[in-house]
Amino acid sequence: MVMAYEKYYNKIEEKIGTDRFNHCIRVAEKSIYLANIYGVDEEKAEIAGMFHDCCKYKDEEILIKKASKYKILEPYLWSGYRKVLHAKLGAVIAKEKYSIEDEDILNAIYYHTTGRACMSKLEKIVFLADITESSRTYDGVEILRKLEVESLDLAMREALSQSLVKLVGNRAFIAEDTISAYNYYLIRW
Prior knowledge:
Layout: H1 3-6, H2 9-16, H3 18-38, H4 42-51, H5 60-69, H6 78-96, H7 103-110, H8 121-132, H9 141-148, H10 152-169, H11 176-188
Helix pairs in contact: 2-3, 3-4, 3-8, 4-7, 4-8, 5-6, 6-7, 7-8, 8-9, 8-10, 9-10, 10-11
């Protein structure tokens, strides 16, 4: 564990719950594993993994109030963005409350639910670690686990494709960053 940030873990666990906090531990572990494969700083991967869901509060009203306080999204967008709002707020809170200054780590937190075009290796690692950590069991996760150790970009293309199929099938909101990310990886790989 990165000792400089460990002092915040109890506070985060209290706000997001033990199950979600254990998910963060698994994401951090998976992020470290992928960082080793792709030559990314392990400490940065661990920090980004541990803090990626730091604002996925048990009480959604807290999320909305804090998002309003920090002017993250206009009120008319909240209902559509609730699934991704915790990531956007998480990057702000990680910087302000938890003293994380590294822009790559903050971007990995910010984009871990939506992705975006031109992601850094760390951003891709945290995005993928979040959806492939050891407790995930959905259809298609094994394909992603295989791809993520072969090519981050191919894994991103497949992950975004799976996500879009699910979102469209559920008639759910799709963030513009997700569409841009999908097009980016589709064209290049």
